[in-house]
Write a structure and sequence with these properties.
17 helices; Zinc finger BED domain-containing protein 5-like; protein dimerization activity; about 300 residues; HATC_C_dom; mainly alpha; RNaseH-like_sf
Amino acid sequence: MSGKISGLIARIRNILPSVTWHHCCIHREAIISKKIPTQLKEVLDEADMDSEHYQLLLHSEIRWLSRGKVLSRLFKLRHEVRLFFIEHKSSITLSERLNDFSWLASLAYLSDIFAHLNVLNLSLQGSHVTIFKVEDKIEAMIKKLELWNLRLSKKNYDSFQNFNNFLELTKEELSGEVSKYIKQHIEDLQRSFRDYFLLTSPEEDNLIEISTNGSLKLQFNQKSLENFWLHVQKDYPVLSSKALKVLIPFPTTYLCEKAFSALVYVKNKFRNRLENVESELRLKLSNIEPNIEKLMSEMQYHPSH
């Protein structure tokens, strides 16, 4: 649908060849998070997709990162859940897993790593997120992964709260196999972030005049990036044009998702006969607050009879 050969992108480029586009950064992160070593994937599936209790641990496949909260809750309630399964003589497999040290250690790690990925996901959302902010967040995540990998080599698990607390509580030694595939997962994440987010290097344009202009430096700190480059477009047309080509495309589909959510809220089951919802949707999505007093002053009152 959005392909470069015959999809939306190709159709737009037929009209405007210079147009640029971005693959949604939030979607890219979700794709990366799905790449898990087989051993961890088995733990994830057993914890999250148990057929007998599917409704209890149900999650949306689209909202993959929501698994982090499910895993965290399951880990914290592991004793209660195990007792429940034993008392009701159901889900023998999962009840046994909830008493297995290696399985629980893997579960604790998964709950922590998905929590970290959730934090990153939330930081990429928002109406004022630019591609530069995305790159900064991704670069920071890659450096964190490098640090976590180094700490794991030294058996330092402070970066993973549930995992670290579990090991301290049980006083058991983590097996080499579990350590191996946890370390493998961290390395895979690091490599995938590099592959899916090809971080761009700043263009080596001549910015001396702008960087030495005190007035422009002040405006740069006060304005958003888009507004700043629009402001200097007249004086620096070439540089401004290059900057805006990078800044204008949305780095994520956040605004689209926000609009869809607003539409579902506006046109709900009680108002399903609404046909033209453009005005309501505009009010819902706009950041401009209406001046109610002014609107009322311009309307004629209808006194009661």
